[in-house]
Amino acid sequence: MLPAYKLLAMNTNESVATSYTTLSGDSVHELEIKRSRFITYLYRVDSEAAAREHIATLRKTHFDARHHCTAFILGPDRMTQRSNDDGEPSGTAGVPMLDALAKRDTEQGGGLSDVLAVVVRYFGGIKLGAGGLVRAYSEAVSSALDHTTLIGRQRLRIFTLPAAHATAARYENELRAAGYQIEPTQWQSTAALIQIGIPDTPEAVEELHTHIATLTSGAGQLVAANTQWVDLI
Fold first, then answer.
1. What does each C-alpha distance from 16 to 48, 148, 153, 198, 231 come to in angstroms?
2. Which CATH code for domain 25-148?
3. Residue 183 belongs to what H/E stretch?
4. What is the distance between the alpha carbons of residues 109 and 113, in angstroms, rounded to a whole number?
5. CA 171 to chain centre
6. Of 188, 213, 26, which is closest to residue 115 (Cα–Cα)?
7. pLDDT tens profile 130-146
8. Does position 89 have pLDDT exceeding 80, yes or no?
9. Measuring CA to CA, which residue among 96, 86, 13 is closest to residue 47?
10. In this structure, is the dihedral angle defined by the CA atoms of residues 22, 203, 160 and 225, taken in order, positive or negative?
11. Where do the domains of the chain lie?
12. CATH top-level class for 152-232?
């Protein structure tokens, strides 16, 4: 039985990764360390533009804060990684924040991505030193991740199965019963096109072809359509 999932936007650029982990939604968490407030905002983002928009908004919201340090990772392959110390000593804020995101162990697998962390610091009057800052910013992000929900994302391979009107409904029902994701069927004048989504792996593709051959007594011909990223729910 395949896991349930929620279809999202189409993916036009193939990646090496076929799965990764991300946030189920945005969250905020606060720590106080030696009278300094570290407020961590976590956002799910899919582009640098979206990440920078959130950062700009927080700068306005927390205009009186001493620092707005940031780190983000983007893409299934996690190729885009950025961090910024925003006035803290070099390497004491953005880098440990990025490490906390990049090295996060996830039950879903594939590594954490499409995530932005912003730590807003209100200085409490006590200097932490370089080592203290590294620990504080790392802990701020790690603690925020501990208090949020992570979900898996998976790339699906979409196939269409042409079928006669008289048999399409039966095929749909049997495929659903077998655990396959069925998207809305396209009803055409001469046939119905059943849309089936499976994990984008050679094993899943082979299994689907075998299942369709059995279901249709060898008459069904699958047509590869596209790929699509989905949230596992």
1. 20, 27, 14, 17, 18
2. 3.30.230.30
3. strand 181-187
4. 11
5. 32
6. 26
7. 999 999 999 999 999 99
8. yes
9. 13
10. positive
11. 25-148, 152-232
12. alpha beta
Report how far Cα 77 is from the mean position of its chain's Cα atoms: 11
- CB proximity list for 90: less than 8 A, separation 6 or greater: none
Distance CA 20, CA 231 (A): 10
**Which of 121, 27, 132 lies closest to 70, judged by CA?**
121
For 96, the token pair is 């440990």
pLDDT in tens, 178-217: 988 888 899 998 899 999 999 998 999 999 999 999 999 9
Separation of alpha carbons 176 and 5, rounded Å: 13
Q: Are 2 and 157 in contact (CB under 8 A)?
A: no
Q: Report if pTM > 0.90.
A: no
Cα diameter, the chain: 76
Q: Is 208 left (phi over 0), alpha (psi -120 to 50) or beta?
A: alpha
CB of 192 closer than 8 Å to CB of 165 = yes
User: How many residues are listed for the chain in this entry?
Assistant: 233
Q: Is 82 in a helix, a strand, or coil?
A: strand
Rounded mean pLDDT of 153-173? Answer: 93
- Residue whose tokens read 């205009």: 63
Which pLDDT belongs to residue 1? Answer: 38
